[in-house]
Design goal:
globular; 7-stranded mixed beta sheet; alpha/beta; 19% strand
């Protein structure tokens, strides 16, 4: 049986094309490569929050997720690992990103490895990952890896940091995420229509009926 892990990628970029999505894609590709080097197959599911902006607002107002958003939330919260990237506005995460965090069940990401990324026009906002974003995932009982990857506008041009270039930061973060994924036992997703899921392995409807009859 192939040991395939699922990585969910959540990007909170607002524009098209988006440097936020570009950073998310590079982080995902690096993580898949790191897992492949460890003999672990991985698939990536990418989600742009701007595609769900109206549904997220409706969820906040009505208290329940429309079908498309509910499907996305299920895919995100059942993934083996999560990569999240937000633009930095006013020295913190975007409002859309925070709204997405607000509709997650507090226990839904418990123990999930998370690689955090962020981008802004200037490197002066790089500390936002640690003082603003990381605490959100601590609250959700997720397990963010040590390295957060911040990209400033200069990182996409020819003047990136010569001491710690973006490519090196991406590689370090991806390596830490791959190590966190590899360290966790892989649990296959349960089929909700499989009797084993709700009756228990090796048990059939006869056991259920017998139990109801007091046998």
């Amino acid at each position: 049986m192939t040991d395939t892990r699922r990585i969910a990628v959540v990007s909170a970029g607002l524009s098209t094309p988006s440097s936020t999505r570009m950073l998310a894609d590079r982080l995902a590709a690096a993580a898949v490569a790191q897992l492949d080097a460890r003999g672990i197959d991985a698939t990536v599911e990418a989600f742009e929050l701007r595609d769900y902006a109206h549904d997220i607002t409706n969820n906040l107002l009505a208290g329940f997720a429309p079908p498309a958003l509910e499907k996305m939330l299920t895919q995100v919260t059942t993934a083996d690992a999560l990569i999240v990237v937000t633009p930095i506005f006013s020295t913190s995460y975007s409002g859309l990103f925070k709204s997405f965090i607000d509709i997650l069940d507090r226990e839904s990401l418990t123990g999930t490895p998370v690689l955090i990324g962020a981008n802004a026009g200037t490197a002066r906002h790089s500390l936002a990952i640690d003082y603003a974003i990381r605490p959100l995932f601590a609250y959700l009982h997720a397990e963010p890896v040590s390295t957060g990857v911040f990209a400033a506008s200069s990182d996409w041009g020819g003047k990136e940091d010569g001491v710690a270039p973006l490519s090196a930061r991406i590689e370090r973060g991806a390596r830490e995420l791959a190590e966190a994924i590899a360290a966790k036992p892989h649990v296959e997703d349960a089929d909700p229509f499989d009797p084993d899921t709700y009756l228990g392995a090796g048990r059939g409807f006869g056991h259920l009926l017998g139990g109801l009859a007091g046998e």
